[in-house]
Write a structure and sequence with these properties.
This protein is of the alpha+beta class. It has 9 helices and 15 strands. The strands form 5 sheets. A 5-stranded mixed β-sheet has the order 1-6-13-14-15, covered by helices on one side. α6 packs across α7.
Length: 254
């Protein structure tokens, strides 16, 4: 029995979690114990192009300061629609030793990431320099880059450009089937991450990795499921499928 059909619906999302062998069981299961979802600043993403809006200087160098708008005001929770990816398990769940939580988050606004053979989101001085000089003929060369950035920040299309950068990734990442949940604060968010309590009833299942350390972690897991979830959360175990390149998920009893 697998859970492909059970979870393949618009209202369910999956989050891959690591299980660092040096971490305590309490640390490993913190997201499960507190039924929380972590929203992080975009500068912590592993893709150097993700949620970046570059500015090409007059010298042809890359300036990342425009991306600071995203880092200052938004925190992002990345979720997947695919709990069967061997690559995802390897990258985000300690080489299959971690776990995945299945959430019911139909009430939280989210947007699917679009995948394209994209070029970097980049404002180029070559495209707007002449327009700026026409509008500000007396600006000095040393002031030009600053004036250009101020001009962009006052342009209504700039925010749409940033949103496109947040929800667009290269085709190489398509296997993630990612959806993003956004926490926005116009005044800015000082912390690099925030943990949001989504409620115990919205955590539906835990999927244990193929190399999950049962000897070390099963006791703590059993305690959390009993005391936090009243024994109602479903447990599954991943293993390599013999039919296709995917992790098969079967019911598991502690």
């Amino acid at each position: 029995m697998e859970i492909i059909d059970k979870f393949w619906s618009p209202m369910n999302f999956f989050k891959y979690y690591s299980a660092n062998p040096k971490a305590s069981s309490e640390e490993v299961f913190a997201p499960l114990r507190y039924h929380s979802l972590r929203y992080v600043s975009a500068d912590q993403f592993n893709d150097p192009y993700d949620s970046k809006c570059f500015f090409e200087t007059l010298d042809g160098d890359r300036d990342d300061s425009l991306s600071d708008t995203i880092n200052r005001h938004l925190r992002i929770a990345s979720m997947s629609r695919n709990p069967h990816s061997p690559i995802m398990w390897a990258h985000y769940s300690t080489n299959h030793a971690g776990y995945v939580l299945g959430y019911n988050l139909e009430k939280l606004p989210n947007k699917a990431v679009e995948y394209e053979d994209m070029k970097p989101f980049c404002y180029s001085t070559r495209d707007i320099k002449d327009a700026i000089l026409k509008e500000y003929p007396d600006v000095s060369p040393s002031e030009l880059a600053g004036v250009m950035k101020e001009h962009l920040l006052s342009d209504d299309s700039y925010m749409q450009y940033l949103m496109d950068a947040i929800f667009t990734k290269h085709l190489d990442w398509k296997y993630e089937e990612e959806h993003r949940f956004i926490d926005f604060n116009q005044s800015g968010i000082p912390d690099k991450y925030i943990d949001v309590d989504v409620g115990a009833t919205n955590v539906e299942a835990i999927l244990l990795g193929y190399k999950f350390d049962h000897e070390k972690l099963d006791h703590e897991l059993k305690s959390i499921i009993k005391n936090v979830y009243g024994g109602s959360i479903e447990i599954y175990k991943a293993e390599p499928s013999l039919e296709k390149y995917a992790m098969k998920l079967k019911p598991y009893e502690l």
